Amino acid sequence: MPSRLSLAAALRRAVALAVFVGALFVPRNAGAGERLDVQDWLARPGVRLVAVEFYATWCKPCMDAMPRWRALREKYGPRGLRVVVVNTQDPEGGCRALPFVPDESVCDLDGEVADSFRLQGKLPSAFLWSWQGNLLVAKGHIDDVERAVEDYFAAAPRVTVEATPEADPRVVDAIRERLADEGKVTVVADSADRVAIEGAKRAQLDARFDERLQCEIGKEVPPNSVLRVGRVTQSSSAFANASLYDLASGCLVASASSDAAGDPRSAARDLTGKLLAKLRRAGGPQWPVVRALERPAPRPTPVAPPRSSWHTPAGVVAVSVGVVSMGVGGAAAFFAKRGGDDIKSAYGNCLTGGWCAPQDEIDDARVLSDVANYALFGGAALTTLGVVFFATEPSTADPAALRVSFGPRQLRLEGSF
């Protein structure tokens, strides 16, 4: 019969197992404020490439690519590829576990990490960096990353370490071990690689290097390189130095030196660290930028109107017709008043039994009065419309004068209104 102690231990194991399994399926806290440090990943030993994939569970292309990400990591993970996934702006997904285990999972439900990568809402978006900090893929997809990873490892830098006659063999051996431990480059060891390196050296005139010929800064380490380790004595001090040369061009990629008076392993660690630091991009990893076409169009700068401009004659015609109509209306009103006086006089005579005006004259006077009213009000309306046209049409910037000249179909206006 099991004891109470064994039962308690079994119960604790069951609870721990339940908590662990539940953690895989329970959504994580969206307010965790997680961050992604690409530079830290690139600096880790054994890391040559870092891929970052932004995804959401509602994004079908994102989820369709997950089996390919798993296969890519399984194939190239042992050679130095690391895969980081970022679940962004996906409250329904809740940053649950994926069908495979990436090297790191970042929960970015508030979108802060995505904003720092300038995604601008594009999902899926994949990025790929080399350990030197060069951005090989930006805002791509799994296809782009697969090709870039294959190309990188096809031309992976191979370095053979050579010692000059004055070099300390212990320092040279320690440098080989240190480079192998860092895992940033392949240290040539087997016979096949050595044959390839020797062939490249012979093609470069027996590896006659010129320290004055500098390679381009920021480029990837060349596929075939030679690290020449020597020893320099100045006064009573001894220094170990290492210079990395590109076999294809003979140029100097990077060089470093360290105090060689103490422990050889300490000198090798210091020298290797300096050399790798010089091979990394200055200022940290290359970062994605917003392309010119992705930027919002700038607002147009207000331009002052020209000193003179051509205006359409609509406003001038309206004002002219309105003025003429007001003149006609005024004349008609004058005659209408006289006719009305005549009508009043005739009407008064008729009432007193005197002479009465003929009916046709009375009708003509009434028509004339109506025409006068229509002409007067119509002219006023047209004049107002013309003023509105003038106010809404482009004006000139010179308020000093107003000069008017006529063209074939337009009116030339200079001045200010």
Fold topology:
Layout: H1 4-25, H2 38-43, E1 49-55, H3 60-64, H4 66-76, E2 81-88, E3 104-108, H5 112-116, E4 125-130, E5 135-140, H6 142-154, E6 158-163, H7 169-182, E7 186-187, H8 191-203, E8 224-234, E9 237-246, E10 252-259, H9 264-279, E11 308-311, H10 314-351, H11 359-392, E12 403-406, E13 411-414
Parallel strand pairs: 1-2, 2-3, 6-7, 6-8
Antiparallel strand pairs: 1-4, 4-5, 8-9, 9-10, 11-13, 12-13
Helix pairs in contact: 7-9, 10-11
Structural summary, described in words:
This protein is α/β, with parallel strands linked by helices and 417 residues long. The protein folds into three domains: 4-154, 3-Layer(aba) Sandwich (Glutaredoxin); 158-279, Rossmann fold (3-Layer(aba) Sandwich), CATH 3.40.50; 308-414. The protein is built from eleven helices and 13 strands. The strands form three sheets. Strands 3-2-1-4-5 form a five-stranded mixed sheet. A five-stranded mixed sheet has the order 7-6-8-9-10. A three-stranded antiparallel sheet has the order 11-13-12, with no helix packed on it. Strand 4 and strand 5 form a beta hairpin. Helix 7 (169-182) packs across helix 9 (264-279) and helix 10 (314-351) packs antiparallel against helix 11. The radius of gyration is 45 Å and the shape is elongated.
